[in-house]
TrEMBL record:
GO terms for molecular function: transferase activity; zinc ion binding. It comes from Penaeus vannamei. Signal peptide: none annotated. SUPFAM superfamilies: RING/U-box (SSF57850). The keyword Zinc applies. Keywords: Metal-binding, Repeat, Transferase, Ubl conjugation pathway, Zinc, Zinc-finger. Pfam families: IBR (PF01485), Rcat_RNF216 (PF26200). Coiled coil: none annotated. Residues 1-177 form the RING-type domain. This is RING-type domain-containing protein. PROSITE patterns: TRIAD. Pathway: Protein modification; protein ubiquitination.
């Protein structure tokens, strides 16, 4: 049943007969059997090739709609979807506009996530720091600075206590990881947005954020 089948045959290779309905009813849980019946009904309806028949992309509800209606309103899950692209209702925008925005949003989200990831200069292993100091030691033994991402040999690269020994040419040994990541994500997002069409704003449509997901 996990393979989506609605008909089952005997497991004995010498038999191959279809398992009786009564047997399925006895050996399966009520919820599983009920789900099986629903799938069978859907299969039969689809085989009938009823003109105008539309299936909800979010649940198993079906209905016959007029050809001029491009929005499917599901009476079961109460969600609206586009009959053309099977995505959530996006009128008055066209399907192609939604595809472009989805691709742009995904690109932005990927760049925001990539901004946090470091790569060992020696073995190329990728990682993110959650806490601790900014002198990172990879499992291969290579050391690097989490702030500027450059290889280091020791602690001479860092300011131990900027309040006492402040050197602008050195990176801070201690800095909150969330603060570092938020700054990097913000810069990455701004860099991507500069390549977008004027006036296009994806900030309100982001579905994933690397610091909150």
């Amino acid at each position: 049943m996990g393979q989506g089948r609605v008909r089952f045959r005997c497991l004995n290779p010498d038999c191959g007969a279809e398992i009786l309905e009564e047997t399925l009813w006895m050996v399966t849980k009520n919820t599983v059997y009920a789900s099986l019946l629903v799938k069978r009904q859907l299969e039969e309806v689809l085989k009938a090739k009823i003109e105008g028949l539309e299936a909800c992309p979010f649940c198993d509800f079906m209905a016959v709609l007029d050809q001029g209606n491009t929005v499917f309103t599901c009476m079961k899950c109460k969600r609206n979807s586009c009959r053309l692209c099977k995505k959530p209702d996006h009128l008055p925008e066209e399907c192609e506009d939604i595809k472009e925005k989805t691709a742009a949003r995904t690109h932005l989200e990927n760049k925001m996530a990539e901004a946090m990831i470091r790569e060992c200069s020696n073995c190329k292993k990728r990682f993110i720091k959650l806490d601790g100091c900014n002198k990172m030691t990879c499992s291969c033994g290579a050391m690097m600075c989490y702030i500027c991402r450059q290889p280091v040999a020791n602690y001479d690269h860092f300011n131990y206590d900027p309040a006492v020994d402040e050197d602008p040419s050195k990176c801070p040994l201690w800095k909150d990881s969330d603060t570092i990541h938020r700054s990097e994500i913000s810069k990455a997002a701004e860099a991507v947005k500069r390549t977008m069409n004027p006036g296009e704003n994806l900030q309100t449509t982001l579905r994933w954020h690397p610091l909150t997901s």
